[in-house]
Records
---
Amino acid sequence: MVRRLEPPPLFHAGDALGAAHIAELVTQKAMAVTIQDRVFRVISTSRRIPLVTVQPDCTFEELGIDSLDRLNILFDLESEFEIEIDDEEAKIATKVSDIVAGVKRLVEAAGTAS
């Protein structure tokens, strides 16, 4: 009989530290997915394009989003997340992933400020 050896877990769910660490990781992952999903939905709705076409690696040009569309999307994102997006920083963004990262940063900053 071959016995399989498993490495010991770094954290045990029964440990207070382990449970807190696991909860923090789950919360961070859920928050990241939620923010990304919400950004995708805002872009899709604002531009009236299918949600499945909005992907992190897409450029605004690939999605047919011009400068006026981008401005409207920024207003919609500000309303959706109750944040203020700096116009100069927004101009630098070329991909959907840039917007997701910026919104996530602003949401996290707003959370620590309150």
Note: Residues 55 and 96 are 7 Å apart (CA to CA).
---
Amino acid sequence: MLGIGTYIKQEAKALRVQQEVKLMMEQIDRRAAMIQDNQTRMLNSLLNRYKEKLVIDRIVLTAHNSTRLITDPEELLRTCHLQYDALKKKRIHGFDNLTPEWQQTYDPISSGRPI
């Protein structure tokens, strides 16, 4: 009896080691394929760079002296384009109205000008 129990344990351990080796080899192959096929993903993984998804679950609309908070998902889908249209408008940067001191700071550096 002891011999059979020991044999079963040895076979179970061998099978477990075989499965672990197979899993490791599959992961190594998948990683090698990623290095060849998708280098951006590989670099992001190595550098721990992950993009968080932007989730919009509410919008505040202000119109005609009234403010409204929209949280209903279906209404959000219908009105979210208004928010993006507002974000795409042209900005007033004011670079044309710099003081002479700041103008000199932002002027291109010529070869004769000290840094």
Note: The chain has a mean pLDDT of 84.
---
Amino acid sequence: MNNRNEIHDALVAWYKVVKRDLPWRKTQDPYKIWISEVMLQQTLVETVKGYYTRFLETFPTVYDLAGADDELLMKHWEGGSGIIQEQEILNVLQLCWLKNLMVKCLTT
């Protein structure tokens, strides 16, 4: 066995021992994975775990997110890390812009 395979096997074995049970690892839905990626850029994994589930209860699909009221979206985004910081505000604005773009795409 070459060194590359040994490293691969060791890494997979380590992961099986230490991996955490995270909700976004239980889906192959690109929307849900994308939401987790955006959230994980802003705060700790432990914080995101519950927040991710609540967010997806309100916005379960990209269509629900696209049709969401901007104020409702902002309110849900605030809860993810407590105090909105500048970068988070920019992320929310980008998300609102994407939401409006999705609405246009879905209705044309």
Note: Residues 23-107 form a domain with the Endonuclease III; domain 1 fold (CATH 1.10.340.30).
